[in-house]
Amino acid sequence: MTAQTDTGTPAPGLEPPLDTPRGPSLGGTVRLALVVGALGVVFGDIGTSPIYALQTIFNPGDPHPVPVNSANVYGVVSLIFWSVTIIVTVFYVGLAMRADNDGEGGIMALITLVRRHPVGRGRKAALTLAALGIFGAALFLGDSMITPAISVLSAVEGVKTVSSGLEAVIIPATVVIIVLLFAVQKRGTAVIGGWFGPIMCVWFGALAVLGIGGIARNPGILRALSPTYAIDFVFGHFGIAFFALAAVVLAFTGAEALYADMGHFGRKPISRAWLFIVFPSVLLNYMGQGAMILEDSANVSGSFFLLAPELLRIPLLVLATAATVIAAQAVISGAFSVAAQASELGYLPRLRIAHTSAQHFGQIYVPWINWLLMASVLVLVFAFRTSEALAFAYGMAVIGTITIVSLLFLYVARIRWGTPKWVLALGGGLLLGIDLLFLAASSTKIVHGAWLPLLIGLIAFTVMVTWQHGRAVVTEERQRREGPLQAFVDGLRESKRKAASVPGTAVFLGRGKDTAPLALRSILEHTCVRHSQIVILSVETQPVPRVPDEERLVVDALVHDRDAIIHVTARFGYMETPDVPTALRAVEPEQSEGRELDLDRAVYYLSAIQLRVGRAPTMAAWRKHLFIATSHITADAAEHFKLPRDRTVIVGSHIEV
After folding, report:
1. Range of 263's domain?
2. Less packed terminus of the chain by CB within 10 Å, N or C?
3. Using CA atoms, how far apart are residues 77 and 223, in angstroms rounded to an integer?
4. Of the given ranges (133-142, 455-464, 467-476), which has the lowest mean pLDDT?
5. What positions does the domain K+ potassium transporter integral membrane occupy (predicted)?
């Protein structure tokens, strides 16, 4: 089943995708510009974790503090290194990013792969995993709200290492920076990446240089590269290490954004930027901070900024602030991708989406999501006021999403790739064991703030599944009212004398070839006038990012006489903007009874549905009100389908849910 729509949101598609890869074109080589752009958009979050991760782990104000001693420092640094290596380098970069949906990545792309062709007992498992994946996507949206708040706050708080008297400017400065960040989103990922990429090149260079300087003061920290220190820390001091895991998660925040942003730049630029620039830089910096803490336990507070000489701390503060702004960009662009895919797959209303690049289809801007995120981030800043308070809430959203992605990936690896069960049992068991250990540790922070991302995720999940169910209810009632299309056309031909024929082309947007559009029924019933050329158009959203032009249209003639009625199916990928007039220009005259469609003067008819709460037991009353409230954010249909305003007629009707 493909998604079909006229003025409603497309339903989830289950048809197989076109297997031709159509991700960002690299011309056979990875362009340096894409790598730099990826540095500016994708890696900001994970690349700024060194600012706050270690000091959070050893924070004496933590409900379960980790004592500062040499054994614990070696163990924590080793644990960070191996956690980032396994989860980010091996799993996300080495494995998960190969599970793309025609170039698009992220949890929504995995959900599409899981839902495709489930059969037998596997169908129930696929639907269960898809529902779990929706919750993971909801958690990621929660992460998208927390990341900008904690990232910018943590950097601006660096002013305290310069002068304690500047503490009063932290909140106002954070607010100004966040508002400016969201204000520039409409310029597009490519432009933002062009600005941010060079800054992040300097940032990662600074991370490496500062880290090397710290290591030079205590080279013994390099012993933490051995996994034995991480193992000894976890199993030798499990009571301490278990609670520390909840903060170690902060070292790989941004891993899911890395995956979700794959459609913006492609797999190769992201993976190479990580392996050759980002990973070595953050590793060196964690090592340098560990060396500083070994030298003096008092260095735990502000260990990142203390790596720099005192004269360079103000420039480092400015650079760190810029980098954390860019860190917020990683999850913002990822949230745009997730929301757009959720909308096109039927889990959210149709949203207004602006494609900001002619070369890279995955680069988009979603205004409604942008302003919702900005409002949410500002609320978090005013409510929590410090990065330490937000840190308790941060890890749950991150590790929850990562665990769900791991489950979806293992299913895809088995069902689509035929990976042997023993390989999945060994590799998948190890991966899930690590994820679940982190998840269990993060759950200990629920009463200390980790409830927040769970609440945000639960709200977003409820909205998405309610919208999906409500759409199904409305679609069923609408199909009943519309009635069979062929029977309607046959009746129209038989009662032709009752409807006056006028010259011109009328395009009625419908939901498919099986039912007659409500607008067509209403126009003929109330005006008794029909155009000599009628096009019934259904738009299908395929579960692939883009559809080739040669596969765009399917044309069927419904009436073979001088007054032609044809049905056109226009197919678009879920990352495309459905431009209906442009698509119809590909209809050949021989497909429309030998006459070319007069699209320059064609009139377009849309069916607008007004929803009302009814008595039918379709779902709980509160969910009906939620569904109707959510429908109000639906983007304008004429704008969405690129219809000419001066030749678009909207015909209204109402449906009870």
Report:
1. 51-449
2. N
3. 10
4. 133-142
5. 35-489
